[in-house]
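Record type: monomer structure entry
Structure origin: computed from sequence
Chain ID: A
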Amino acid sequence: MKKILCTIMTVIMLMTVLPVLAEDAPAAEPPVSEETQVAADETALAPQDSQKLDAAYTLALNAITAEDYATAKEYINICFAYCDRVSNPVIMADLLLKRACIDVIEGNHDMAMLNLDAAIRVNPDIAEAYLVRTQIYAGAGNTDKAIENLEKYIELSQDTSLYETVAQLQEAKGNIEAAQAAYDKYVQGAGAEVEEAGFQNGLYKMQAYNFQEAITDFEVYTENETYAAGAFYNIGICKMNMGDYAGAAEAFKKCEEKGGIFEGLYFNLGICSMMSGEWTTAEGDFAKSIETEPYADDARYNMAICRLQQDDYENAMSVFTEYIGEGSTEERTVNDAAYYFRAMCEGSLGKLDAAIADYTVCIDHGYNLSESYYQRAQVYAAQGNTEKQNEDLANSLKYAEQ
Protein backbone atom coordinates (compact mmCIF):
# COMPACT_ATOMS: atom_id res chain seq x y z
CA MET A 1 0.00 0.00 0.00
CA LYS A 2 3.00 2.31 -0.13
CA LYS A 3 1.70 4.07 -3.27
CA ILE A 4 -1.67 4.88 -1.70
CA LEU A 5 -0.65 6.15 1.72
CA CYS A 6 0.05 9.68 0.53
CA THR A 7 -3.12 9.85 -1.57
CA ILE A 8 -5.19 12.29 0.45
CA MET A 9 -2.72 15.18 0.57
CA THR A 10 -1.88 14.62 -3.09
CA VAL A 11 -5.49 14.52 -4.25
CA ILE A 12 -6.62 17.41 -2.10
CA MET A 13 -4.17 19.70 -3.87
CA LEU A 14 -5.23 18.69 -7.38
CA MET A 15 -6.86 21.22 -9.70
CA THR A 16 -5.34 24.18 -7.92
CA VAL A 17 -5.81 26.37 -10.98
CA LEU A 18 -8.53 28.98 -10.85
CA PRO A 19 -11.95 27.50 -11.63
CA VAL A 20 -13.23 27.69 -15.18
CA LEU A 21 -16.53 29.48 -14.81
CA ALA A 22 -19.57 29.34 -17.06
CA GLU A 23 -18.95 32.72 -18.65
CA ASP A 24 -15.42 31.68 -19.65
CA ALA A 25 -16.71 29.03 -22.09
CA PRO A 26 -15.48 29.25 -25.72
CA ALA A 27 -17.46 31.61 -27.97
CA ALA A 28 -18.20 28.99 -30.65
CA GLU A 29 -21.01 26.80 -29.31
CA PRO A 30 -23.18 24.24 -31.10
CA PRO A 31 -26.73 25.36 -31.90
CA VAL A 32 -29.15 25.03 -29.00
CA SER A 33 -32.90 25.23 -28.73
CA GLU A 34 -34.56 28.23 -27.15
CA GLU A 35 -35.67 26.09 -24.23
CA THR A 36 -32.12 24.86 -23.63
CA GLN A 37 -30.75 28.37 -23.89
CA VAL A 38 -33.18 29.61 -21.24
CA ALA A 39 -32.05 26.82 -18.89
CA ALA A 40 -28.41 27.67 -19.52
CA ASP A 41 -29.05 31.34 -18.85
CA GLU A 42 -30.68 30.47 -15.55
CA THR A 43 -27.67 28.43 -14.38
CA ALA A 44 -24.99 30.86 -15.53
CA LEU A 45 -23.35 32.90 -12.78
CA ALA A 46 -23.44 36.64 -12.69
CA PRO A 47 -19.94 38.19 -12.86
CA GLN A 48 -20.16 39.16 -9.19
CA ASP A 49 -21.08 35.60 -8.14
CA SER A 50 -18.32 34.23 -10.35
CA GLN A 51 -15.84 36.46 -8.57
CA LYS A 52 -17.12 35.26 -5.19
CA LEU A 53 -16.68 31.63 -6.27
CA ASP A 54 -13.19 32.37 -7.49
CA ALA A 55 -12.27 34.08 -4.21
CA ALA A 56 -13.77 31.37 -1.99
CA TYR A 57 -12.11 28.63 -4.04
CA THR A 58 -8.70 30.28 -3.75
CA LEU A 59 -9.14 30.83 -0.01
CA ALA A 60 -10.11 27.18 0.41
CA LEU A 61 -6.95 26.08 -1.42
CA ASN A 62 -4.80 28.37 0.71
CA ALA A 63 -6.36 26.97 3.89
CA ILE A 64 -5.73 23.42 2.68
CA THR A 65 -2.10 24.30 2.00
CA ALA A 66 -1.85 25.60 5.56
CA GLU A 67 -3.58 22.42 6.81
CA ASP A 68 -6.31 24.59 8.33
CA TYR A 69 -9.10 22.22 7.41
CA ALA A 70 -11.84 23.87 9.46
CA THR A 71 -11.33 27.10 7.51
CA ALA A 72 -11.05 25.17 4.26
CA LYS A 73 -14.45 23.57 4.88
CA GLU A 74 -16.02 26.98 5.49
CA TYR A 75 -14.78 28.29 2.14
CA ILE A 76 -15.72 25.08 0.31
CA ASN A 77 -19.25 25.50 1.65
CA ILE A 78 -19.27 29.07 0.29
CA CYS A 79 -18.15 27.65 -3.07
CA PHE A 80 -21.12 25.28 -3.06
CA ALA A 81 -23.45 28.29 -2.81
CA TYR A 82 -22.03 29.80 -6.00
CA CYS A 83 -21.14 26.68 -8.05
CA ASP A 84 -23.79 25.03 -10.18
CA ARG A 85 -23.38 21.31 -10.96
CA VAL A 86 -24.95 21.69 -14.42
CA SER A 87 -22.81 24.51 -15.75
CA ASN A 88 -19.67 23.65 -13.74
CA PRO A 89 -19.68 19.87 -13.12
CA VAL A 90 -15.88 19.61 -13.05
CA ILE A 91 -15.53 22.28 -10.37
CA MET A 92 -18.46 20.87 -8.39
CA ALA A 93 -16.91 17.39 -8.45
CA ASP A 94 -13.55 18.84 -7.46
CA LEU A 95 -15.11 20.60 -4.47
CA LEU A 96 -16.86 17.42 -3.38
CA LEU A 97 -13.58 15.53 -3.73
CA LYS A 98 -11.70 18.06 -1.62
CA ARG A 99 -14.44 17.92 1.01
CA ALA A 100 -14.17 14.12 1.03
CA CYS A 101 -10.41 14.30 1.47
CA ILE A 102 -10.84 16.52 4.50
CA ASP A 103 -13.41 14.06 5.86
CA VAL A 104 -10.82 11.28 5.56
CA ILE A 105 -8.18 13.37 7.30
CA GLU A 106 -10.67 13.97 10.12
CA GLY A 107 -11.54 10.28 10.29
CA ASN A 108 -15.12 10.70 9.04
CA HIS A 109 -15.05 7.97 6.42
CA ASP A 110 -18.82 7.57 6.08
CA MET A 111 -19.24 11.24 5.17
CA ALA A 112 -16.20 10.98 2.87
CA MET A 113 -17.85 8.15 0.96
CA LEU A 114 -21.05 10.18 0.55
CA ASN A 115 -19.09 13.10 -0.87
CA LEU A 116 -17.08 10.83 -3.15
CA ASP A 117 -20.25 9.20 -4.46
CA ALA A 118 -21.69 12.64 -5.13
CA ALA A 119 -18.50 13.70 -6.95
CA ILE A 120 -18.68 10.65 -9.20
CA ARG A 121 -22.35 11.28 -9.99
CA VAL A 122 -21.51 14.83 -11.04
CA ASN A 123 -18.37 13.84 -12.95
CA PRO A 124 -18.05 10.08 -13.61
CA ASP A 125 -14.53 10.60 -14.99
CA ILE A 126 -13.05 12.05 -11.80
CA ALA A 127 -10.35 9.44 -11.35
CA GLU A 128 -9.03 10.71 -8.02
CA ALA A 129 -12.34 9.92 -6.30
CA TYR A 130 -11.73 6.24 -6.99
CA LEU A 131 -8.21 6.55 -5.60
CA VAL A 132 -9.49 7.99 -2.32
CA ARG A 133 -12.15 5.27 -2.21
CA THR A 134 -9.35 2.75 -2.58
CA GLN A 135 -7.60 4.13 0.46
CA ILE A 136 -10.77 4.06 2.56
CA TYR A 137 -11.62 0.49 1.57
CA ALA A 138 -8.05 -0.70 2.09
CA GLY A 139 -7.96 0.88 5.54
CA ALA A 140 -11.23 -0.87 6.41
CA GLY A 141 -9.85 -4.23 5.28
CA ASN A 142 -12.23 -4.48 2.30
CA THR A 143 -9.58 -5.59 -0.15
CA ASP A 144 -12.02 -6.58 -2.91
CA LYS A 145 -13.53 -3.09 -3.05
CA ALA A 146 -10.09 -1.52 -2.79
CA ILE A 147 -8.92 -3.47 -5.84
CA GLU A 148 -12.10 -2.67 -7.77
CA ASN A 149 -11.73 1.08 -7.19
CA LEU A 150 -7.99 1.13 -7.81
CA GLU A 151 -8.45 -0.61 -11.16
CA LYS A 152 -11.12 1.97 -12.06
CA TYR A 153 -8.67 4.74 -11.17
CA ILE A 154 -6.02 3.16 -13.39
CA GLU A 155 -8.53 2.89 -16.24
CA LEU A 156 -9.43 6.58 -15.99
CA SER A 157 -5.98 7.97 -15.25
CA GLN A 158 -3.89 5.54 -17.31
CA ASP A 159 -1.45 5.45 -14.39
CA THR A 160 -0.28 1.87 -14.85
CA SER A 161 2.36 2.25 -12.13
CA LEU A 162 -0.40 1.51 -9.62
CA TYR A 163 -0.79 -2.01 -10.97
CA GLU A 164 2.09 -2.72 -8.60
CA THR A 165 -0.24 -1.81 -5.72
CA VAL A 166 -3.01 -3.95 -7.23
CA ALA A 167 -0.52 -6.81 -7.18
CA GLN A 168 0.22 -6.16 -3.50
CA LEU A 169 -3.50 -6.18 -2.67
CA GLN A 170 -4.08 -9.40 -4.58
CA GLU A 171 -1.08 -10.96 -2.87
CA ALA A 172 -2.50 -9.96 0.52
CA LYS A 173 -5.66 -11.88 -0.39
CA GLY A 174 -3.61 -14.91 -1.41
CA ASN A 175 -4.55 -14.50 -5.09
CA ILE A 176 -1.05 -15.17 -6.37
CA GLU A 177 -2.00 -15.65 -10.05
CA ALA A 178 -3.98 -12.39 -10.03
CA ALA A 179 -1.10 -10.67 -8.26
CA GLN A 180 1.36 -11.82 -10.90
CA ALA A 181 -0.99 -10.76 -13.70
CA ALA A 182 -1.29 -7.28 -12.18
CA TYR A 183 2.46 -7.05 -11.70
CA ASP A 184 2.99 -7.99 -15.35
CA LYS A 185 0.75 -5.06 -16.33
CA TYR A 186 2.85 -2.80 -14.10
CA VAL A 187 6.04 -3.96 -15.83
CA GLN A 188 4.50 -3.60 -19.31
CA GLY A 189 3.40 -0.07 -18.54
CA ALA A 190 6.73 1.00 -17.09
CA GLY A 191 8.11 1.67 -20.55
CA ALA A 192 11.57 0.53 -19.44
CA GLU A 193 13.16 -2.55 -17.98
CA VAL A 194 12.17 -3.00 -14.33
CA GLU A 195 15.26 -4.35 -12.61
CA GLU A 196 13.39 -6.29 -9.93
CA ALA A 197 10.73 -7.74 -12.25
CA GLY A 198 12.29 -11.19 -12.51
CA PHE A 199 12.97 -11.28 -8.78
CA GLN A 200 9.35 -10.41 -8.01
CA ASN A 201 8.14 -13.07 -10.42
CA GLY A 202 10.33 -15.54 -8.56
CA LEU A 203 8.56 -14.58 -5.33
CA TYR A 204 5.17 -15.17 -6.93
CA LYS A 205 6.25 -18.56 -8.23
CA MET A 206 7.63 -19.49 -4.83
CA GLN A 207 4.31 -18.60 -3.19
CA ALA A 208 2.54 -20.70 -5.81
CA TYR A 209 4.81 -23.67 -4.86
CA ASN A 210 6.51 -23.64 -8.26
CA PHE A 211 9.86 -23.92 -6.51
CA GLN A 212 12.06 -25.02 -9.41
CA GLU A 213 10.78 -22.23 -11.65
CA ALA A 214 11.29 -19.75 -8.81
CA ILE A 215 14.88 -20.93 -8.36
CA THR A 216 15.52 -20.32 -12.06
CA ASP A 217 14.28 -16.73 -11.69
CA PHE A 218 16.32 -16.07 -8.55
CA GLU A 219 19.52 -17.49 -10.04
CA VAL A 220 19.58 -14.58 -12.49
CA TYR A 221 20.11 -12.24 -9.51
CA THR A 222 22.86 -14.10 -7.63
CA GLU A 223 25.50 -11.70 -8.97
CA ASN A 224 23.34 -8.60 -8.63
CA GLU A 225 24.71 -6.25 -5.99
CA THR A 226 21.27 -5.30 -4.74
CA TYR A 227 19.41 -8.61 -4.92
CA ALA A 228 22.09 -11.30 -4.55
CA ALA A 229 21.64 -11.95 -0.82
CA GLY A 230 17.86 -12.11 -1.15
CA ALA A 231 18.13 -14.36 -4.18
CA PHE A 232 20.29 -16.88 -2.30
CA TYR A 233 17.98 -16.76 0.72
CA ASN A 234 14.92 -17.47 -1.43
CA ILE A 235 16.74 -20.24 -3.29
CA GLY A 236 17.42 -21.76 0.12
CA ILE A 237 13.74 -21.58 1.06
CA CYS A 238 12.75 -23.21 -2.24
CA LYS A 239 15.27 -26.02 -1.82
CA MET A 240 14.14 -26.66 1.74
CA ASN A 241 10.59 -27.08 0.48
CA MET A 242 11.88 -29.49 -2.17
CA GLY A 243 13.65 -31.57 0.48
CA ASP A 244 17.15 -30.62 -0.76
CA TYR A 245 18.53 -29.65 2.66
CA ALA A 246 22.19 -29.76 1.63
CA GLY A 247 21.47 -27.48 -1.33
CA ALA A 248 19.40 -25.19 0.88
CA ALA A 249 22.20 -24.94 3.46
CA GLU A 250 24.67 -24.02 0.71
CA ALA A 251 22.35 -21.25 -0.53
CA PHE A 252 21.83 -19.89 2.99
CA LYS A 253 25.60 -19.77 3.56
CA LYS A 254 26.07 -17.84 0.32
CA CYS A 255 23.35 -15.47 1.49
CA GLU A 256 25.36 -14.91 4.66
CA GLU A 257 28.55 -14.37 2.62
CA LYS A 258 26.73 -11.70 0.61
CA GLY A 259 25.91 -9.86 3.82
CA GLY A 260 22.29 -10.97 3.94
CA ILE A 261 20.47 -10.33 7.20
CA PHE A 262 17.18 -12.19 7.00
CA GLU A 263 14.93 -13.18 9.87
CA GLY A 264 15.10 -16.96 9.99
CA LEU A 265 18.42 -17.40 8.18
CA TYR A 266 20.17 -19.18 11.07
CA PHE A 267 17.05 -21.03 12.17
CA ASN A 268 16.62 -22.44 8.66
CA LEU A 269 20.31 -23.30 8.51
CA GLY A 270 19.85 -25.22 11.76
CA ILE A 271 16.89 -27.14 10.33
CA CYS A 272 18.92 -28.07 7.25
CA SER A 273 21.82 -29.26 9.41
CA MET A 274 19.43 -31.31 11.58
CA MET A 275 17.84 -32.93 8.54
CA SER A 276 21.32 -33.82 7.31
CA GLY A 277 22.26 -35.33 10.68
CA GLU A 278 24.89 -32.68 11.37
CA TRP A 279 23.94 -32.23 15.01
CA THR A 280 26.94 -30.18 16.17
CA THR A 281 26.63 -27.77 13.24
CA ALA A 282 22.90 -27.46 13.83
CA GLU A 283 23.49 -26.69 17.50
CA GLY A 284 25.72 -23.77 16.52
CA ASP A 285 23.15 -22.50 14.03
CA PHE A 286 20.42 -22.53 16.64
CA ALA A 287 22.69 -20.74 19.10
CA LYS A 288 23.04 -17.89 16.57
CA SER A 289 19.28 -17.92 16.02
CA ILE A 290 18.66 -17.57 19.75
CA GLU A 291 20.95 -14.53 19.83
CA THR A 292 19.70 -12.72 16.73
CA GLU A 293 16.25 -13.94 15.68
CA PRO A 294 12.77 -13.92 17.21
CA TYR A 295 12.59 -17.71 17.34
CA ALA A 296 14.37 -18.20 20.64
CA ASP A 297 11.94 -20.78 22.05
CA ASP A 298 11.83 -22.95 18.93
CA ALA A 299 15.58 -22.62 18.41
CA ARG A 300 16.21 -23.60 22.03
CA TYR A 301 13.97 -26.67 21.70
CA ASN A 302 15.80 -27.77 18.54
CA MET A 303 19.17 -27.17 20.19
CA ALA A 304 18.13 -29.51 23.01
CA ILE A 305 17.13 -32.15 20.45
CA CYS A 306 20.58 -31.86 18.85
CA ARG A 307 22.25 -32.47 22.22
CA LEU A 308 19.95 -35.40 22.92
CA GLN A 309 20.89 -36.92 19.56
CA GLN A 310 24.52 -36.73 20.65
CA ASP A 311 23.72 -38.45 23.98
CA ASP A 312 24.63 -35.26 25.82
CA TYR A 313 21.82 -35.83 28.32
CA GLU A 314 22.94 -33.35 30.96
CA ASN A 315 23.16 -30.40 28.59
CA ALA A 316 20.05 -31.47 26.68
CA MET A 317 18.09 -31.62 29.94
CA SER A 318 19.35 -28.16 30.86
CA VAL A 319 18.20 -26.63 27.58
CA PHE A 320 14.81 -28.36 27.74
CA THR A 321 14.41 -26.84 31.21
CA GLU A 322 15.23 -23.37 29.82
CA TYR A 323 12.65 -23.94 27.11
CA ILE A 324 9.93 -25.14 29.48
CA GLY A 325 10.58 -22.41 32.02
CA GLU A 326 9.32 -22.01 35.55
CA GLY A 327 5.82 -22.21 36.97
CA SER A 328 3.08 -24.78 36.77
CA THR A 329 2.52 -26.74 33.58
CA GLU A 330 -1.01 -25.32 33.32
CA GLU A 331 0.46 -21.82 32.91
CA ARG A 332 2.86 -22.78 30.13
CA THR A 333 1.95 -23.22 26.49
CA VAL A 334 4.88 -25.17 25.14
CA ASN A 335 5.57 -28.17 22.97
CA ASP A 336 4.63 -31.16 25.16
CA ALA A 337 7.38 -33.15 23.46
CA ALA A 338 9.83 -31.09 25.53
CA TYR A 339 8.56 -32.82 28.70
CA TYR A 340 8.81 -36.21 26.97
CA PHE A 341 12.39 -35.74 25.82
CA ARG A 342 13.46 -34.13 29.08
CA ALA A 343 12.05 -37.20 30.84
CA MET A 344 14.21 -39.39 28.62
CA CYS A 345 17.28 -37.37 29.64
CA GLU A 346 16.31 -37.55 33.31
CA GLY A 347 15.79 -41.30 33.10
CA SER A 348 19.19 -41.77 31.46
CA LEU A 349 20.81 -39.69 34.24
CA GLY A 350 19.06 -41.65 36.98
CA LYS A 351 16.75 -38.80 37.96
CA LEU A 352 13.80 -41.20 38.18
CA ASP A 353 11.31 -39.09 40.15
CA ALA A 354 11.83 -36.16 37.79
CA ALA A 355 11.37 -38.46 34.79
CA ILE A 356 8.10 -39.80 36.22
CA ALA A 357 6.88 -36.23 36.79
CA ASP A 358 7.57 -35.23 33.18
CA TYR A 359 6.01 -38.38 31.69
CA THR A 360 2.98 -37.66 33.88
CA VAL A 361 2.71 -34.17 32.37
CA CYS A 362 2.70 -35.77 28.91
CA ILE A 363 -0.03 -38.20 29.95
CA ASP A 364 -2.11 -35.44 31.56
CA HIS A 365 -1.81 -33.42 28.35
CA GLY A 366 -2.70 -36.42 26.18
CA TYR A 367 0.65 -36.37 24.42
CA ASN A 368 1.86 -39.57 22.71
CA LEU A 369 -0.04 -41.65 25.28
CA SER A 370 1.08 -45.13 24.30
CA GLU A 371 4.77 -44.18 24.36
CA SER A 372 4.45 -41.96 27.46
CA TYR A 373 2.83 -44.79 29.46
CA TYR A 374 5.41 -47.27 28.16
CA GLN A 375 8.39 -45.10 29.08
CA ARG A 376 6.98 -44.28 32.52
CA ALA A 377 6.50 -48.02 33.08
CA GLN A 378 10.22 -48.51 32.48
CA VAL A 379 11.03 -45.90 35.11
CA TYR A 380 8.67 -47.56 37.59
CA ALA A 381 10.41 -50.85 36.83
CA ALA A 382 13.76 -49.24 37.62
CA GLN A 383 12.31 -48.16 40.97
CA GLY A 384 11.01 -51.69 41.61
CA ASN A 385 7.35 -50.56 41.57
CA THR A 386 5.87 -53.53 39.73
CA GLU A 387 2.25 -52.56 40.41
CA LYS A 388 2.54 -49.19 38.68
CA GLN A 389 4.74 -50.70 35.98
CA ASN A 390 2.01 -53.20 35.11
CA GLU A 391 -0.69 -50.53 35.21
CA ASP A 392 1.24 -48.30 32.79
CA LEU A 393 2.07 -51.19 30.44
CA ALA A 394 -1.63 -52.10 30.28
CA ASN A 395 -2.49 -48.47 29.42
CA SER A 396 0.26 -48.41 26.81
CA LEU A 397 -1.27 -51.42 25.08
CA LYS A 398 -4.75 -49.89 25.29
CA TYR A 399 -3.72 -46.65 23.62
CA ALA A 400 -1.53 -48.44 21.06
CA GLU A 401 -4.64 -50.23 19.80
CA GLN A 402 -6.67 -47.07 19.39
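Annotation 1: Residues 208-260 form one domain.
Annotation 2: Residues 1-8, 14-43 have pLDDT under 50 and may be disordered.
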